[in-house]
Amino acid sequence: MSKPMSDSRSFEVLTASPVRLSSSPGRSYRSWADEEKARIVEQTLVAGANVSAIARSNGLDPSQLFAWRRKAIATGVVAPLAGAPSRPVKFTRFESMRSDQVEIVIGDVVVRAGGDVEPDRLADVIRAVRKA
Description:
By secondary structure, the protein is of the alpha+beta class. Helix content is 33%, strand content 14%. The strands form two sheets. A two-stranded antiparallel ribbon has the order 1-2. Helix 1 (34-44) crosses helix 3 (62-74).
């Protein structure tokens, strides 16, 4: 059986206030402009680029640059286009919008296709434009 509890109960309230110790460094957070972020992320899209080295050379933690890069690719701000392994990877910026028509820019050529175009036919057209 358990022991009976006494009727008198006491407790103490502790209060604390945060104080920075003289030996602990203060934290400063840097604000990055979107153009600066885009420039740094663009460097990571070059074939054979070392993302960690690029991050350190720009005063960033590598995990921060990997996060920026992931976010840029996931949101469609940049989209890597595969090229030959010896050449740098090209990227493009695009804006998404709701439409029945798709517009694909390849160099100085614009290919417009409606939603009724067969994917295989569109792929053939894109290959032909790239070869031209």
